[in-house]
């Protein structure tokens, strides 16, 4: 069976994003308890390494655009694969905080390098009618990565946490090879000069940019505190890897995001994702001692999380088809800043509010943001027409 251009790019992109974003980005938090125990690192050092991994992701986001402008959009995806593999190998063999930090930062940067360039690759190499589906498939690759990460975590329970990182290194190399074989080269596109292009892009992305602030903030709160909630609920040790696997499995529905967005509108789908994440946060905050409620929360969150990220890729490509990668990167950078601020604010208020209350308050923020987006769409009509900047 011969794959179409959209199928080839979608398959390769899903593998690369799945490994870089679904595995390398979340592996540090998943293996942190074992790293703490084996290497004897302080909470301060562990926290600094965690922050550094996110700095690596942000650096990848910011550097991917200039590299694509010089060498074509496939170049950042290749760079991201190399960073992910080298970083994962380094963490696998690390015996010191410096090696651990360096490897974790490199691995964390992979997600920033690879995700946004696929928007340009898709809009330039895939037929227009196939583009929403291809973008949704690529983004939903994160689901497969989360499932694989959960499997590696279960395997590591029988041996060492280093098996997780070794598995990520192998998966990264495999994905990079598939990417080079299936994704065509694209010629570099010069970046617009001056403030005019930036201001036009900002105007076009006001609504998806605001969505990014809310979406990434509430999602990072869920991922940051889910493991703590499960531990406080005295659930089995296997509950944490099972949570990741459940999020990944249910998140596979994100492959339909393109078709759903074409029927309902991207703004409405984004709003419904915020409402869905709100429901998952409420369950996690109020019933964390129940295995059934926690499982339901993970499944609901998987749907909202993966569809919510997929619709952002589809939405930005609709609004700014001539600069889809730059548009998506802009929203991801805004979301990255939000992701940094949200845990810091949460950490400041948790001692006074309590973890359960914090999750419920975050759910309220997500719900209100979703309602506001729905009302905005109703007031302004359908999503604005595509804009070239």
Automatic annotation (TrEMBL):
Keyword Transcription: no
Any one GO cellular component localisation term in the record: plasma membrane
Membrane topology: Multi-pass membrane protein
TM ranges: 45-64, 134-157, 163-183, 204-225, 237-257, 269-287, 293-315, 327-349, 355-375
Main location: membrane
Localization in the cell: Cell membrane
Superkingdom of the source species: Bacteria
InterPro entries found in the cross-reference section: MFS, MFS_dom, MFS_Efflux_Transporters, MFS_trans_sf
Record keywords: Cell membrane, Membrane, Transmembrane, Transmembrane helix
Annotated Major facilitator superfamily (MFS) profile domain residues: 10-381
Protein name as catalogued: Putative MFS family arabinose efflux permease
Origin organism lineage: Bacteria, Bacillati, Actinomycetota, Actinomycetes, Geodermatophilales
